[in-house]
Amino acid sequence: MKLCFYQRISLALAAVFICVLALFFFTSAHLQSITQDEAEQQLHLGLAEHLALDSPLLKTGVYDYEALKNLFHTLMILGPNFEFYYLDPDGKILTYSAEAGKVKAEYVSLAPIQTLIRNPGQLPIKGDDPRNPGVKKIFSAAPVMNGDALQGYLYVIIGGEIYDSILGNIKESENVQQLILFSALSLVFLFVVLLVLFNALTSPLRKLSAEMDKVSGSDFQQTRLNEPNYQWQSDSHDEVQRLGSTFTRMLKRINVQFDQLQQIDTQRRVLLADLSHDLRTPLANLHGYIETLAINDDTLDAAKRKRFISISLKNARNLKHLIDQIFELAYLEGGQVTLNQEPFPLGELLHDIASKFALKAAEKALTLEVSVGESDYRVFADIGKLERILTNLLENAIRHTPAQGTITLAVTPQVNKIRIDIRDTGVGISDKEIAFIFDARYQATNHEKDNCLHAGLGLAISKKLVSLLDSDLLVESQLGKGTCFSFELQVVPVQ
After folding, report:
1. Distance between CA atoms of residues 52 and 110, nearest Å
2. Cα gap 404→361, rounded to integer Å
3. Strands (DSSP E) along 398-490, which ranges?
4. Dihedral sign, Cα of residue 240, residue 243, residue 245, residue 251
5. Alpha-carbon span 221 to 226, nearest angstrom
6. How far apart are CA 24 and CA 397, in angstroms?
7. Residue ranges of the chain whose pLDDT lies below 70
8. Beta partners for 96?
């Protein structure tokens, strides 16, 4: 039979309680025995001394052992609680009050006897029991003198065999009855208390288990569950309360991640469909012109052949550019990009990039400016990734800025950083569309068209590259007045 956690912990604590109860009982019995022995020995401490002084057979020396044995027998009948022994100075038993054959030992150790006679304060002191070798019992003892000479010792066992037998039977019966009664009452009380206590303590755990079962049955979709009736407390000292709160937060987080994954999957499907369309257009054009060249090669003159080849190369370049962007975005989203960061002068890079676009800007009658100030800032970044970011942003700025416009690459110092601005006087972006311009494949409604194929991936790639440089790509724009993209870089301190 399988037991639940509540039943297992109840049985475990009940077993522990029984063990503690038994230990307590036996410890109490042992302490009670020690206390009783001390009291008995203290009460009869002078018994042997009085007998030695009052008995005519002992106070003047022992000569008649048979008479002394009869005296011991008479005293034992009057006091069955005692056993009397007469020992020589070496501890040998010379006579005693017991029946013949009852005494097993021939000698009694003198060390406890001498300790009791010299220092009777450390009670109880136990000596040998001649009836049971190896057993220790409390006693009373006194020296028997013959003038000034030690003749022997009077050794009186307190609590003899008869006394032990009667007392043992009574105690055994009484202890068993008390133990059974006390154990039964204690167990009943314990189980009642445990049932109430553990029911209260394990109630949150059972509720948490029930919630987990509901979540498992709902395929881990919290939206399919009813609002939980039990509110977990995250700041409680109860570990189960904190566990329940953590479980609820974890479930919410998992659902958010599921939603994000579904959105990402939907976006990927849409992106794949759009990119397939974009790839199909230049590929179809390329295929068509190459097929025309192959079929009509003999009938085409040199001018048409050159024109068809030029169009085919243009479509091939557009196709390669689009495929390169797709692969670049895929690598960035997959986290497969490594950074090669190093310190370098930013001004040189900005001037080099401006020179690269100078001819294209001149073709549209645009003014391309670089404003880095008087200081030559050194930054710590991946020069290749930074050049890719600036190239994408400058291409967008040139495409969306009409003739006679201005494009500026500006550097503005910040606290321990510098801000790079790519500012243009182009068509701008409406407030409703700014939030979507970094999405892959998104193109604003007022985007400028040219002879090149644009898949709308440039800003998405730039955004991810800037995040790799521990920065964020920000945008400010006014429709009809221009746009400014900006991000920050870490400055290398001057040595």
Report:
1. 18
2. 10
3. 406-413, 417-424, 474-478, 482-490
4. negative
5. 11
6. 89
7. 1-8, 10, 54, 56-80, 100, 160-179, 201, 219-230, 238, 267, 270-279, 281, 325, 328-329, 331-336, 374-375, 440-456, 494-495
8. 85
Instruction: Tell me which residue of 411, 429, 297 sits closest to 350, measured CA to CA.
Output: 411
- For β-strands 93-96 and 126-128, DSSP reports them as unpaired
> What is the spatial distance between Cα 322 and Cα 328, in angstroms, rounded to a whole number?
10
How far is it, in rounded angstroms, from Cα 319 to Cα 453? 8
CA 330 – CA 348 distance, rounded (Å): 30
Find tokens 């009085």 and name the residue. Answer: 50
Cβ atoms within 10 Å of 182's Cβ, excluding its own:
12
DSSP state of 90: T
- Return the pLDDT at 450: 52
Cα–Cα distance measured from residue 424 to residue 194, given in angstroms and rounded to the nearest whole number: 77
Q: How does DSSP assign 332-360, residue by residue?
A: HHTT------EEEEHHHHHHHHHHHHHHH
Closest C-alpha to 379, from 389, 394, 369, 368: 389
